[in-house]
């Protein structure tokens, strides 16, 4: 079941025009909503990292906290990367939602890069974090598309296992 702005505003006893009056455009509204969704994700990720004893535990907490049945079944309240990527990709380059999405991706990548092995250089930590994000998001998108079938859980378990046993290494000199 989806809820429209008109439905939501009607339930509040207001008009949807009054809601949109707070924004210059629907594009601005989409960008603000996207940025807010990423801000919530960043805070969730920061809390997971803060609870960990070390960077390996923090990385594991991020992976294990992401690839869950709960996140699979709640796309509206979990990671905006998996929930919005396809829709944002359809937007024109100049749309503000694309900039908000990229900024959010960068913030999550920076957090994940910060918990990569310290032996790695900055570029290697970033590349490793981006590959890990791509694996998590890809697994989540596919798990959502196959929800209710055994392969859905298998996708998340395989990604989790791969990411948790994967140890990024610095390139040989």
How would you describe this structure to a colleague?
The model has no long low-confidence stretch (mean pLDDT 87). The protein has 173 residues and is mainly α. The protein has 9 helices and no strands.
The total of helices stands at 9
Query: How does the helix and strand content classify structurally?
Result: mainly alpha
Oligomer: single chain
Average pLDDT for all residues: 87
**Secondary-structure element pattern, one letter each:** HHHHHHHHH
Report the span from N to C terminus.
Answer: 55 Å
Give the secondary structure arrangement, pairings included:
Blueprint: H1 5-11, H2 16-20, H3 26-51, H4 55-66, H5 69-73, H6 80-89, H7 96-113, H8 122-145, H9 150-165
Helix pairs in contact: 3-4, 3-7, 6-7, 7-8, 8-9
Features:
globular; 9 helices; mainly alpha; 173 residues
Q: In short, what is this structure?
A:
With 173 residues, this protein is an all-alpha fold. It has 9 helices and no strands.
């Amino acid at each position: 079941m989806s809820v429209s702005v008109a439905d939501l505003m009607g339930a509040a006893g207001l008009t949807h025009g009054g809601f949109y009056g707070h924004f210059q455009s629907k594009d601005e509204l989409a960008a603000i909503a996207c940025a807010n969704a990423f801000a919530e994700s960043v805070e969730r990720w920061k809390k997971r990292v803060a609870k960990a004893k070390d960077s390996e535990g923090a990385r594991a907490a991020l992976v294990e906290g992401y690839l869950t049945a709960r996140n699979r079944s709640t796309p509206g309240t979990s990671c905006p990367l998996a929930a919005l990527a396809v829709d944002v990709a359809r937007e024109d380059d100049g749309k503000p939602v694309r900039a908000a999405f990229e900024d959010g991706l960068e913030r999550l990548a920076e957090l994940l890069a910060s918990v990569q092995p310290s032996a790695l250089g900055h570029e290697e930590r970033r590349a490793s974090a981006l590959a890990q994000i791509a694996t998590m998001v890809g697994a989540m998108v596919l798990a959502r598309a196959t929800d209710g079938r055994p392969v859905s859980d298998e996708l998340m378990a395989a990604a989790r296992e791969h990411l948790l046993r994967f140890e990024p290494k610095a390139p040989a000199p």
